[in-house]
Structures are given as structure tokens and as C-alpha cells.
Amino acid sequence: MRVRFAGLLCMVFGFMLLSFAEANVPAPKIVRKQLLLALENRKLTDSLDKVFAVAPNKSPLNVCYFGVIQALKAKHAWNPYYKVKYLNDAEKILQTAVNHEPDNIEIRFMRFSIEHNVPGFLGYTKHLVADREEMLKQLERKYYATADQDVVITVIKFLLESKRCTPHENDFLHKQLAAIK
Question: Does the keyword Signal apply (predicted)?
Fold first, then answer.
């Protein structure tokens, strides 16, 4: 009887902990700011990793953020083995997010920005063209999913600065940016 009660108590405590963790996942606007800060802050990256790792039933956007956190862990790791491990984890997690919401411009942007910044010789640039084309398509349709105006502006500016677009695409992006402002 005591074993069953202890097991039940552990199970209830576990559910409470998971619910608490999901409740502690910040809103997308806050996560975006934290991810920018985490670019240069390993402790913040580790803290975000702990929150997102235990969050159950992640939305595709939260899955994406978790993938970005893995890429940030790769950036902060000094051991080459862990750098590659975290990048592999990031790639798989981001692909899961894209599979669940292939039209989400923010998810595509996050993966694009990571692949753009990872050295090409590592082989993590497989989706640059597809992600760029999908983002351009969503910009043309004005379908931004969960992205707010700030994210859309960031996407456009990043695409322009990336030098990965054709002159025609750059003209389109400049027109989109002018229309938003």
C-alpha cells in the first residue's frame, strides 16, 4: 500500500513539475529577445535549455526555439565533439519543427539564420535555398503565422544582408520593407 501511495505521489509531483515547466516557457516575444542575448551568454543558453527541455507538448514554434538553443549550445561549446553533437541535435529538432509547420516564416527563418552562420564545410547548409524560397513565398502571400511585424522586418533585413538572394529577390524584399514601414 505504501509503495502504491509513494508511486502515486511521485506521479502527481511529476505532472505538477511538467505543468510548471510548460507555464514557465516565456511568450515568443520574450524568447526572441532571450535568444539574441544567449548568442553571447552561455549561462542564459543553459537556462533556456533547461526550460525548453522539460516543456511537454511543445508547439512547433517552441520546438524550433529548442532547436535554436541546441545550436547556441554548439556555439558556446569548446569541445569539437560537442559542437557537432549539438549541431546534429539542432538540425533534427529544427527539421521536426519545419515538418509540423512548413509554412511558418519564423521557423524557416531560424533554420536559415543558423545554416547561414555555420561554416559551409560542416555540411549544415542543406536547407538554405528551400528556406529562402519559402520565406519569400510567405512574404509575398503576407502570411506570417506567429511572426509579428518586428520579426517580419528582421527576416527581410537578414535576407538582404545575407547576400543569398538574387537581384530580383532583393528588389522584392526592398519593396516589402518599404510597405511595412
Answer: yes
